[in-house]
Design brief:
By secondary structure, the protein is α/β, with parallel strands linked by helices. The protein has 13 helices and 25 strands. It has a domain of 166 residues: Sandwich (Jelly Rolls), CATH 2.60.120.260. The N and C termini lie far apart (66 Å). It holds the Pfam family Cellulase.
Amino acid sequence: MFQKLSLLLLIWLSVFCSSRSLAQGFLRADGKKIVNEKGENVLLRGVGLGGWMLQEGYMLKINKEGQQYRIRERLEELMGAKQTGEFYDLWLANHTRKIDIDSMKAWGFNSVRLPMHYNLYTLPVEKESVNGQNTWLEKGFAMTDSLLAWCKANQMYLILDLHAAPGGQGNDVNISDRDPSKPSLWDSEANQQKTIALWRKLAERYVNEPWIGGYDLINEPNWGFDDPVNDKNGTKEKNNAPLKKLMIDITKAIREVDKKHMIIIEGNGWGNNYNGILPQWDNNMVLSFHKYWSYNDQASAGHMIKARDKYNIPVWVGETGENSNVWFTEAIRLFETNNIGWAWWPLKKIGVNNPVEIKSNLNYDSVVGYLNGGGNKPKESNVYSGLMELAVHTRLENTTIHRDVIDAMIRQPFSAETKPFKKHIVQNRIVINAVDYDLGRNGVAYFDKDTADYHVSNAKHKGGNKGRMYRNDGVDIIKDPTAYEAYYIYNIESGEWLNYTMEVKKKGNYTIKLKVAADNDNGRISILSNGKLVSKDILVPNTGGLSDFQFIEIKNVPLNAGKQTLTVLADVGFFNFSQLQFNK
């Protein structure tokens, strides 16, 4: 009897959980808001899976000929087509898996944007055996099905984004993997028809899937229709007639088979130029804007809000990121205060300013050096080894997860509370690395004068973490070449400071040793405990160079037992800082 009751309970729970997973239903536009089927406002907090289906060269540290097709061709020249194919198969299998989506949900995100490469779903027009024919490839659809299943399991919305359209949709060729020697999307009716057919096929497949959040028709079109010479990226385009026509044609094809899902459109000029495109032509449509490297004041969102109010249509920031934690916190606070959802870019790459960092390796570094024109041609075996190791390192469990980035995105926009970056228990001979200062906002957990890159708003404001290592705050961090996985803070300016929240085991007077390096004898440091000055005007001596570290001692620093915050203040800067040691 007990077993039967248990079985019935399990069946009931299964049905209950299933009904809960469908409870929110399809997203839709409702005036200026995105809502679910209950009419509840939905604020999308998501991340784009850039680099999975479509590699952009910069994500791999390749800054020369960075289109994916050229990267692949050049790898084939180095290690052959067979081994290159093995690398790409492993890359696609490893880059995004259920563990990634599970983690995103646990971190606080509620949506995923999938940048699709059309060549995983259908053949290029030049490879079709019959003109106008569409050969469908199972690979892309199967990958999308799996991703959707993972999103459904986590009750996260999946937004489909055509990132690389047939022929390529812009003159920024890396974004869409465009080959300039072939007709673009805009130069080829066949490419346009294949784009329309692909969207119809996707809509047929996913028409009854409520966890598909919407269809993002064409990512970042950037094409000069009226003045291709002087305005090649379409930022000054006044009419955008070909772009509007294609998006209307795609919408019609989708609506023939799917009247449920939101249609998301992007303007010219990397998603922001809507001249001639509006008003909307469908009653379930969303405007997507992209925002990079601009100030995060209310004025910087003014064009989005103006369009939303004028046309009574929801707005979504479909791409943003590639900056410092300070910028991330500011931007998300700006968006959410104005009820604008967002999708960050990207989840992972080789680099520190995203939630997840893919680790490089020495063999791959040699490949990058050669591809960028600055190194010797590597051996075939080393190329293969380096690329396969890189593909293995794309698995989430082999990456570096940047908790500081996630905290800046999810918690810090609306919380000024600080948290320890690591657990620091102070007792005799304990060491705290200088780079492990507290987690939180600039001016609360630490203070740095140069915190973010705002060069779109002001060309002079291209700053942030100059070292771009370990953490993504404004604090400048660089790797210590003399030690394994060791880092230190450099380029310290006068008035900057760092907080370290710690647990002191025993009350008493401690000797604090600071490991510093300087090429002058001007530096001065003060120490505060819970905001109270305990030592001031400590000389930072000339150690012989900015990479020549030595300890300076601060004796008789009184510390109470229990939790407290130690502040290291640079009264006069221009020295480097590596460690704190506590001796009783």
